[in-house]
Amino acid sequence: MNFHLSGRWALVCAASKGLGKACAKALVAEGVNVVITARHAEALELTATELREIDEEVVVRTVVGDITTEQGRADALAGCPQIDILINNAGGPPPGDFRNWSRDQWIAAVDANMLTPIALIKATVDAMAERGFGRIVNITSGAVKAPIAELGLSNGARSGLTGFVAGLARQPKLAGRNVTINNLLPGAFDTDRLRTATQAAADSTGRPFEQVYDERRRGIPAGRFGQADEFGAFCAFVCSSQASYLTGQNILLDGGAYAGTF
Ligand code: NAD
Fold first, then answer.
1. What is the CA radius of gyration of the chain?
2. Considering only CA atoms, which of 228, 256, 252, 246 is closest in space to residue 145?
3. Cα–Cα distance between 181 and 134 in angstroms, integer?
4. Does the CB atom of residue 91 touch ligand 1 within 6 A?
5. For the ranges 92-96, 159-163, 167-171, which has the lowest average pLDDT?
6. What is the pLDDT of residues 140-158, one digit of tens each?
7. Three-state SS at 67
8. What is the C-alpha separation between 109 and 115, in angstroms, rounded?
């Protein structure tokens, strides 16, 4: 299937590794020029080299910076001549007990996982509408649908974004101008983040990493963790011309882990 994305420009945030990187890979494979961001230059440049190997014709630019800061966002936006596709992503907040979280920790989570994507949407969405094409994909979490107790910062901040997007995506001046905004909700994908979280769980219970990792894997009906590349492929489809009637949706990719009917 041809997604009709060749020559478009995408800003893919937090994309040196994991799900963001996989989205950038899938978009580059569709002929999309990308600007990728991350905080560390070395890992980002390695990813850029990998992306250029997928398609030499495609332009791959890097912007080093923390996307959750005003400067990081300004630099990312300035690095992209035009933004047809915006993939909002950032690291997730740490786990813990809400009794121990300070106001500053809450503000950091809301900044990273709610206000940063909203600021980037604000900076790009009207120009998309004017041009008659726009795709915004927010990488959120399965925790929006099935909250995870120790990830209260994530549950809260990402739910705020979800509510905001639900209202925005349905505005006729966006939906009626071929601008779609959707959230992708990863379940458990085998990325650095999953391994770090598994290691933390192993350390806190004194059990071996492999035991905790395997137990979690067996709890997923698909019997495996998701692979980042399958997440990226789905993201590219959501950005395609074929997906223009899909907006305001929360799409769970979790191998059947969420047990509800809806
Ligand atoms: P990851 O740790 O594998 O990769 C995160 C990427 O984001 C890295 O490239 C990192 O450098 C970059 N990054 C992090 N914070 C940044 C910042 N402030 N500015 C710029 N770049 C930044 O993580 P992942 O597994 O790909 O997760 C991506 C998002 O999806 C996270 O918000 C995570 O909480 C969420 N999520 C992941 C899973 C999973 O199973 N992997 C499940 C649910 C939700």
1. 18
2. 252
3. 8
4. yes
5. 92-96
6. 999 999 999 999 999 999 9
7. coil
8. 9
Sign of the four-CA dihedral 196, 249, 21, 218: positive
The pTM is what? 0.98
Cα(17) to centroid(ligand 1), Å: 8
**Angle subtended at Cα 109 by Cα 104 and Cα 114, rounded to the nearest 5 degrees:** 130
Query: Residue type for 74, please?
Result: A
7: which 2 tokens?
């020559």
Find residue 163's DSSP bridge partners: none
Confidence of residue 120 (pLDDT cuts 50, 70, 90): very high
Q: How far is the CA of 172 from the centre of ligand 1 (A)?
A: 32
212-258 confidence digits (pLDDT tens)? 999 999 999 999 999 999 999 999 999 999 999 999 999 999 999 99
- Annotate 98-125 with DSSP letters as a single string: GGG--HHHHHHHHIIIIIHHHHHHHHHH
Please tell me if the CB atom of residue 159 comes closer than 6 angstroms to any atom of ligand 1: no
Instruction: Give start and end residues of each alpha helix (H) in the chain.
Output: 18-29, 41-54, 70-78, 103-110, 116-131, 152-169, 172-175, 192-205, 209-218, 228-238
Output the CA 195–ligand 1 centroid distance in Å: 12
Lookup: tokens for 221: 């009906």
Q: Convert 205-218 to b/e letters by CB count within 10 Å (16 or more is b).
A: eeeeeeebbeebbe
Cβ of 169 less than 6 Å from ligand 1: no
Q: Which is the closest atom of ligand 1 to the Cα of 44?
A: 9
β-sheet bridge partners, residue 251: 184
The SS3 of residue 29 is helix
Task: Answer whether 18 contacts ligand 1 (Cβ < 6 A).
Answer: yes
